Amino acid sequence: MRKAILAATMMALTVPATVAFSAPAEARDRRYSRTDNGIRYWRGNDGRYRCKKSNGTTGLLIGGVAGALAGRAIDTRGDRATGTILGAAGGALLGREIDRSNSRPRCR
User: Fold this and answer.
1) Would you state the torsion angle of the CA atoms of residues 19, 23, 28, 32, taken in this order, to the nearest 10 degrees?
2) How confident is the chain (108 residues) per 10-residue block, as mean pLDDT?
3) Where does the signal sequence lie (predicted)?
């Protein structure tokens, strides 16, 4: 009896979780195409092209680390904190913009 109750409880918890995390019907029915650089896009119901663009997080992180290392190497006086911070900020902004610029202009 315990096993049956436990199995019913697990089933009751599993079904709503799979429904909650599944894609909406409109997302499953989309016909995707790919750009030259691998970005998937689709044509929406309003005729506009839609795509999943990169938000620049990867470029932000890599650029920040590279900028911090470059800033630390350039600033050779004192404790080098200023060069590290300025290099990280500049590298992060530059890396983010480079990462975000990889999508085609027709994507919205």
Assistant:
1) -160
2) 72 59 55 74 80 80 94 88 93 89 57
3) 1-27
